[in-house]
Amino acid sequence: MSHPSFNGVHYPARLLARNTVYNLMGRLLPMAIALAAIPYIIEGLGVERFGVLTLAWMVVGYFGIFDMGIGRAATKFVAQAISRREQEQLASLIWTSLLLLVGFGIIGGVLAALLTPWLVSDVLNISEALKGESRMAFLLLAASMPIVLGTSGARGVLEGQQRFRLVNAIKIPASAATFLMPLVVLFFSNNLFHIVAVLVGARCIVFFIHAYVCIASLPGRRMPQFPQHATAKRLLGFGGWLTATNVFGSLMALGYIDRLVIGNRLDLSAIAYYSTPFELTVKLLLLSGGLLGVLFPVFSAYAIDQRQKLEILHQCTVKFLFLSMGMVTIGLVAFASPFLRLWLDESFARESAVVLQLLTVGVLMSAISSAFLGAIQALGRPDLTAKRHIIELPFYAAAMWFCTVRWGIVGTAAVWTAWQVVEIGILLWFLKKLLPSAAARIQYQANVIAVGIIAVTTGAFALSAISDLSTRLVTTLLALATVLILGWRYILNAEDRRKLLHVLAPPAKPSEQLSTEVKQ
Questions:
Q1: What is the reported pTM?
Q2: Boundaries of domain holding 433
Q3: Percentage of residues in the chain with pLDDT exceeding 70?
């Protein structure tokens, strides 16, 4: 990445790289803690209680759709306001987004609470012994919805200001607490309500910290303001389509339909055997999420009249994601069973190994498609991504039901991975329509990446078939080195290599500053 600029605001390559590192740390460190803590949480709660806890997180996470896309919209419009030096717009964006999200959180929390008895009693196959504490845990999580959504809005504003160091300084301990605090509670109780109560208390603290630093980012404009009609209309106009994406897309992308079908047609132990590898593999998206979280405000700034720069930056992003995630895919698919056996136990290795392999391949494709998604939304067309989810959902649900009933959780994972293939094709077609001058270059790159995905996937499954672990390890290391060499030589062009070396080289000066007021 070079040193792009827009209306006088510069985004040096090292700034983007540094912010990406902050985002990666904000995801990697909690993930490491999760890997260490989950086996003890499962042991303390038991497989069934742990299954209920993951379902509770999933249900309340889904009700995050009442965000109405405002968090993402705030990031986009804050970035554009800074690029245009429209400082007066920032105060309106902050107060309007925060107050709207708290209000929507109240609505979402009430709806989640009303649906809780039905979910616990009729939808989910929860044993009678756990229904009481499960119901109380769900209700408490529903009450936390205004806090969850308010935090999302404040974080969106800070990301639009490129303040990723601050965002992740808050996020790392907050995310770590999600896994460490249940361990502390387990010394005293394994009741789900007690565990959820502590987690909700932590969420409240995180919200107030986010809100404080968000408001403090605008000296002299800290007095509360009522939501402004014009600002609310802009946020809701863009965010409305994102809400449709959240409503329908999250059902598929985040495994909500998957686990609801498993919980209804199979049992809670099957949910644990599916949810554990699913949560692990989805966390691999921390790389794409960390990078695209930084780049989305930049994409948004370029989308107005600097689309050639957006195209260049997007293509570089796709190449980087393929190479990095491709190497992770090879390693995890090759050693899925030994990893699960070492991390958890023999039963998880037996029941979840193939699931982990299939989901890992799906996550590779999901990471790449997220780059297309970010560019399309930055170009101001979130409606395209929402409409496709509305059309896809019934077909996805039917396939998920059929394959889960017929082949169990392996069929579930296969459907989710196949859907990721469809996603890449649709988003590629959309992006070519939005950037017609670059359509040929985008298609050529997509063809190269498609060949690469097939080669990586085939090679990874072939490696997993090697019975001797020492031979498998040596062969896998050779495969990773081959991918790295071929990627450097044939995927990256000369300009990509020059930019990457520039980012990795020691800075010429002790510190590098933005040439304008982009806060860090």
A1: 0.69
A2: 263-503
A3: 85
